[in-house]
Design goal:
about 240 residues; three-stranded mixed beta sheet; 14 helices; about 5% strand; disordered N terminus; 3 strands
């Protein structure tokens, strides 16, 4: 199987010292579940030292083997990681049954990200109601990023009754969340969808073009949000209007 290019990017590799890498290997080989998970993580994304010397190359099959060892010992992070890997089909052929099994194991231990991943699995399996419930559960477990999916489910009536007010509430809650509790991309996507709602007047009074433009420019602050940028090309960007 060809490696995933995004995983080969050294800027996303795990950075550790050679000394720590050797210590991790020793602990993992002696049966330490946390160390086994971390070795798996290193092989999933690659590991380098400060001089960018490769300590662990990206090897998804090896990552899967270490996750399996750690997951079998009950380590929830490994169970969640294994579920994600199995559902992606990147290491081996996609295994939804295994992914669901390990996601439920991790959820039982309070892993909110596993609840989100389980929602995505059910979404891909065309089980919208189950997907929606899992996204809701992830939010209740503290995964604020999952507010985006809950909001979109309400917006499009996916797995639940369409409710524009609830969609807007979820998106606003995500946007207001602290930076430490959400991914930047989730906030950018929420801003994009709030701009769309405002632009077409869904959920209340239509906002001014200036307000919509501000939200879209916030979503595209790093110039990496293609959809927001496409609409800005139509509405016009502040820097061009003020030039």
């Amino acid at each position: 199987m060809s490696p995933n290019p995004s995983r080969m990017d050294s800027s996303h590799s795990h950075v550790i010292t050679k000394r720590k890498w050797r210590a991790l290997l020793s602990l993992a080989q002696s049966g330490n579940a946390e160390a086994q998970w971390e070795i798996g993580y290193c092989h999933e994304f690659g590991a380098v030292d400060k001089s960018v010397t490769v300590l662990a190359s990206v090897d998804l099959l090896e990552a899967k083997r270490w996750y399996e060892r750690s997951a079998a010992l009950g380590y929830s992070a490994a169970q969640g990681a294994l579920s994600t890997l199995l559902s992606s089909g990147e290491a081996t052929s996609r295994d939804y049954a295994g992914a669901i099994y390990w996601a439920k194991k991790a959820i039982a231990q309070g892993d909110a990200s596993a609840a989100h991943n389980l929602g995505t699995i059910y979404r891909d399996q065309k089980k919208p109601a189950m997907a929606f419930r899992c996204y809701q559960r992830a939010v209740s477990m503290g995964a604020n990023d999952s507010l985006l999916q809950v909001g979109l489910c309400y917006l499009f009536g996916f797995g639940t009754k369409q409710n524009f007010a609830e969609a807007q509430r979820c998106l606003e809650q995500l946007i207001a969340s602290g930076a430490a509790t959400i991914c930047q991309r989730s906030k950018e996507d929420a801003l994009y969808w709030m701009a769309i709602l405002s632009l077409v007047g869904i959920g209340g009074k239509k906002k001014s073009i200036g307000h919509v433009r501000h939200m879209l420019e916030s979503a595209n602050a790093d110039d990496d949000h293609e959809q927001a940028n496409e609409i800005l090309n139509i509405l016009g960007k502040s820097k061009y209007l003020s030039a």
